[in-house]
Hints:
This protein is mostly helical. The chain has one domain. It is 69% helix and 0% strand. It starts with a helix and ends in a 12-residue tail after the last helix. The model has no long low-confidence stretch (mean pLDDT 90).
Amino acid sequence: MTDSDLERIYTxxxxxxxxxxxxxxxxxxxxxxxxxxxxxxxxxxxxxxxxAARLPSGAVTAAT
Length: 64
């Protein structure tokens, strides 16, 4: 996958999240994650990616 491909995917993802609205965004992302995990077809790899996606302990977020 090229940088251009990733940019296109990211842009589409952002547009879809915006279209879903703030209240539905978490549900949309959860559905997307489950679809991606199903396509991946590897439970151990999925678990590793779920852990890798967590913010590091003590990371500053927009909520703080």
